[in-house]
Structure formats: structure tokens, C-alpha cells
Amino acid sequence: MTIHGIVAYPVTPFTAGGRIDHTALHAIIDRLLDGGASAVAPLGSTGEAAYLDLTEWTETAASTIRHVAGRAPTVVGVSDLTTDGAVRRARIAESLGADAIMALPVSYWRLTELEVQRHFESIAGAVRIPVMVYNNPATAGIDLAPEQLWELVRDVENITMVKESTGDVERMHRLRELSGGSLPFFNGSNPLALEAFRAGAAGWCTAAPCLIPEQIAAFHAAVVDGDISTAEGVFARIEPLLQFIVARGLPTTVKAGLARTGIPAGTPRRPLLELDGDEAATLVRLIESARG
Fold first, then answer.
1. Are 185 and 144 in contact, with CB atoms under 8 Å apart?
2. 38-95 tens-digit pLDDT
3. Burial of 198 by CB count in 10 Å (0-12 exposed, 13-18 middle, 19+ buried)?
4. CA 28 to mean position of chain CA atoms
5. What b/e string do you get for 141-178 counting C-beta neighbours within 10 Å, with b at 16 or more?
6. What's the pLDDT score for residue 139?
């Protein structure tokens, strides 16, 4: 199994009563796959995994894997405050049929390098499927340097990929240098997509295909074909939307955008709040502009 290209992140939709909305979830997954996503990655920050209890998390993972049904690899987020919690989720994901798992080092206390290493060793040692290490200090409060990320991949069996979300393209160049080009690293910073592919990224982890799947697919196709002029043109058109959904928050903006593009996905879970009127109008305008 090879994961590459557009790794698409669905939100976790809720019914009016606060339950998982499986009908909406399946419609979102179909939109992602029909739009050319290379993999589907539920239960990341876009999927509000931090706001789901274990039963809801398991229900969402199972529903996603079952509906994808082998049409693309599934990369399930298993991040948890505790190592035991992350290990538990990793084992559940594997038992449900996930193709890979992704973990962010989340902690109330700032972790030492050794604590991070032991955390990921425990996760990777609990399963036989590949592990993607996720670095996003803006979300987790812990920043993993390229050297530490490479050491985890080099030294820990099952850790095979890195998702780098700092928005610093130099870190990607450094990962490529450290690994001699052997490490599949993925860009998790939407505004950096074009530069990340130029730096050798194996793929782009993004929720944007929930809203503009055709445009994301066209951008990636141009990148793969080496048609830089077309890639730059498409990216210039979609970048304002990418900037907005990141700045305002992915679960909130993507759910609002889905509702306005035919898939009501409910509201984000508190403490997250819905967009106000001006923000919603801006989002609609940016989606229309991105679609050209």
C-alpha cells in the first residue's frame, strides 16, 4: 500500500441531536473519492476527534472504513492525551481495517524528546500497520524538529511517514536532506501546497476537497504533469479560500461550506461556534471564486 497525492480529511457530521450523521459522512466520503482523493483520513483535527468520546470516535472510524470499502487507503487519526489512549485507538483502528494511522503528540504538559519518542514507540509497537507522525505545534503545543521526526522514522519500526504542518517549507527540504529523499513526507499546511510539492512532498493532507474537490484534483494533476503554469494559476484562484478556512478553523468553515454546497453536516461541537453572517458570506464568495 502506498499513500500519496491528495489525502482528504472529512469532517465528522452531527445530526441536530448531536449524534454522528452517517448519511452525511458517507456523502462527504463519496464527494472526496469521486473528486479524485488518493486517501481518506478521518478523525484528525478537521474531524473534531478531540471533541468525540471513544464510542463516537470508534463509530466514526468504523463507518468511514466500511464506506470507503477499499476504494482508497484510510489513514485514521488516533491522537490522545495519554499514550494508553492513543494505543487503544490505534488497535481499534487496525481491527476495523484501517490501512494506516496518524498520531499527533498531544499533551497538557510539554513533552521532552524522550517522552515523545516513548509515546510513538508505544503506538507503533501496538499495531502492524504504518504510522504517520504528525507535527502541528499550533494545535498540539509541541514542535518536533525535522531531525527528531527523521529519527522516529529511522529508528522505530512501523513509523514510515511524516505530516509536517508548521508552514515552514525549509523543514521539508531538511527532511528530504536528512533522509536522502527516502522519507515520504506530507504537507499539512494548506497555503503551502505549491511550495511543498516543489520541495518533494509525497502528498497534501487537506480538508479542502470537501468544498472544492475538482479544483484540488486539477491542481494536483497539473503538479504531477509538471505543468507549473497551470498549477500556479489554479492555486492562485483557490489560495484565498485555503487561507480563510485555516484562519477561521477547519471544522467550523468546512461544515458551513458543506451546508452551502449540498451536504448539511451539522454544527461544530462546542466550544466551537458557527460562522457569523459576514463570515458565511465571505466563505460563499471564496468558494465561488475558487470554482471559477
1. no
2. 999 999 999 999 999 999 999 999 999 999 999 999 999 999 999 999 999 999 999 9
3. middle
4. 14
5. ebebebeebbbbbeebebbbbbbbbbbebebbebbbeb
6. 87
Produce one character per residue of 34-55: b if its CB has 16 or more CB atoms within 10 Å, e if not: ebbbbbbbbbbbbbbbbebeee
Q: What is the mean pLDDT of residues 132-155?
A: 95
Q: How confident is the model at residue 126 (pLDDT cuts 50, 70, 90)?
A: very high
User: Secondary structure of the chain in the HEC alphabet?
Assistant: CCCCEEEECCCCCECCCCCECHHHHHHHHHHHHHCCCCEECCCCCCCCHHHCCHHHHHHHHHHHHHHHCCCCCEEEECCCCCHHHHHHHHHHHHHHCCCEEEECCCCCCCCCHHHHHHHHHHHHHCCCCCEEEEECHHHHCCCCCHHHHHHHHHHCCCEEEEEECCCCHHHHHHHHHHHCCCCCEEECCHHHHHHHHHCCCCEEEECHHHCCHHHHHHHHHHHHHCCHHHHHHHHHHHHHHHHHHHHHCHHHHHHHHHHCCCCCCCCCCCCCCCCCHHHHHHHHHHHHHHHC
pLDDT digits (tens, 9 = 90+) for 155-171: 999 999 999 999 999 99
pLDDT averaged over every residue in the chain: 97
Q: Are strands 159-164 and 185-187 parallel, antiparallel or unpaired?
A: parallel
